[in-house]
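Troubleshooting log. The previous structure file for this entry was overwritten by mistake, so regenerating from the original sequence record. Sequence copied from the archived sheet and checked twice against the printout by T.R.
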Amino acid sequence: MREVDEALRQDQMLGAFKRYGKVVGTLIVAGLLGLGGWLWWTDHQKAEQATRAETFILALDQIEGGQLDAGYKALDPLAQKGGGGSQAAARMMQAGIALEQGRKSEALKLLSAIVADTSAPQPYRDLALIRQAATEFDTMPPADVIGKLKPLATPGNPWLASAGELVGMAYIKQGHSDLAGPLFAAISRDKDAPDSARSRARQMAGLLGVDAIDDPGKAAAVQAPAAVAPGQ
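Regenerated output below.
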């Protein structure tokens, strides 16, 4: 009985192999090909990242050495098809060079491309928007400046100082000192803002009649005259 049972099992296994062997073999081969393709793609991506980093470093060295034209040209491959952060960084650097050389329209075109690029990291897009508004501030209607930057000019936003200064000045252009003063005061209290920006904002808030002194004791000393002793 055992011999018959073993023979039956062998016959069943042989039949199953004949029936499904090709399908299983195809699946195994496809899996191996997929794994090989994934490994190749990973290595290819790492190699491209290394190449992009080398290109960017070379361009930075040229720019720091005063070779702006050469640095701009070296950034072209990344700016054209770098993808994601590397492309946005290259375009941002090229926009800075264009502004330095007085090519305002070209700089604005590059900054607009960063803002519109949904594949770029959001911090690059926000920075490009601020740079764009700062470059066009003198000719841009105040309402447009406020409309573009107001979402960034809020307490807790990392771009409060940069965007807030522009929005505050736009408010002043509109004659809304009542809106500009509190905004400058908020910038002056932002611990993450650069000291220079906080100092400017504190001065602007004071000129607009808004107290921006953090220390309540100092604020009381500024607001109240010193006590006079009896008989003096």
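Residues 63-136 form one domain. Archived copy saved in two places this time.
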